[in-house]
Amino acid sequence: MLGTQDYDRLSETGLVQAALLGQRLAGEGIESWPVWSGALRRHRQTVDALPVAGVVQINPCLNEYRVDHLLMAAREQASHLGLRPPPESAFADPVAFLATFMAWFPEVLDYWQRDVLRDPINGSWAAFQTRVLLAVPAWRRCLRAGRSVVVVTSAGVISTLVAELCGHDLEWQRRLNVSLYNASVTELGLEHDRCWRIARLNCVEHLAERGLQTLA
Q1: What phi, psi does 150 have (nearest 5°)?
Q2: Which end of the chain is more exposed for a tag (fewer CB within 10 A), N or C?
Q3: Are 159 and 168 in contact (CB under 8 A)?
Q4: Start-end ranges of CATH 3.40.50.1240 in the chain?
Q5: How far apart are CA 57 and CA 201, in angstroms?
Q6: Rounded to the nearest 5°, which phi and psi values hold at 203?
Q7: Sorting pLDDT into bands at 50, 70 and 90, what band is 6?
Q8: Residue 25, Cβ neighbours under 10 Å: how many?
Q9: What is the 3-state secondary structure (H, E, C) of the chain?
């Protein structure tokens, strides 16, 4: 939860969002679909709210990068890189300054993606991008066999996968990264056994009626 010492957990709102997501997916018949998930606690909490009947494939390749460490590295290297970080008060209260961080974060991502911003915790963008794509061949095999796949992960991973598979550039990926809602639904399809297409992107109908669209 943003603004706490333990970010890797769902807030009370997040638990409600996950339950509503589970209700939506139950209506789409996912019980028999294979499920893949990152290994983070918030990923597993989300999976627990889904109508899953089979074994869940827990794969650390689907883990999110550490946003807090990227921001810290950007802050420490700001003068050298020419970055203009938010004021000190923003770092003291990230919840209140969420919009400020969301506006600044695409620039931080851009510097990381160009290998200008160095972060020993997250490593390089190229390594992150390579890692999150490792599961794609297994998903492709499932789709070829006529089986859909559910993937539970985070905004950075989702935006990277969608951009790479559907041929969008990194600027598009950065915009999507900061606009994906928690517990939203993004769906990709495989055409002619090789071309990926976007069927749904960042859908939140299951959250809208209760005003539960949140970004972090």
Answers
A1: -100, 130
A2: N
A3: no
A4: 1-65+122-216
A5: 23
A6: -80, 135
A7: low
A8: 19
A9: CCCCCCCCCCCHHHHHHHHHHHHHHHCCCHHHCCEEECCCHHHHHHHHCCCCCCCEEECHHHCCCCHHHHHHHHHHCHHHHCCCCCCHHHHHCCCCCHHHHHHHHHHHHHHHHCCCCCCCCCCCHHHHHHHHCCCHHHHHHHHHCCCCCEEECCHHHHHHHHHHHHCCCHHHHHHHHCCCCCCCEEEEEEECCCEEEEEEEEECHHHHCCCCCCCC
pLDDT value at residue 1: 41
23 vs 41: CA distance, rounded Å: 21
Decide: pTM greater than 0.85.
Answer: yes
Place of tokens 């209260």: 93
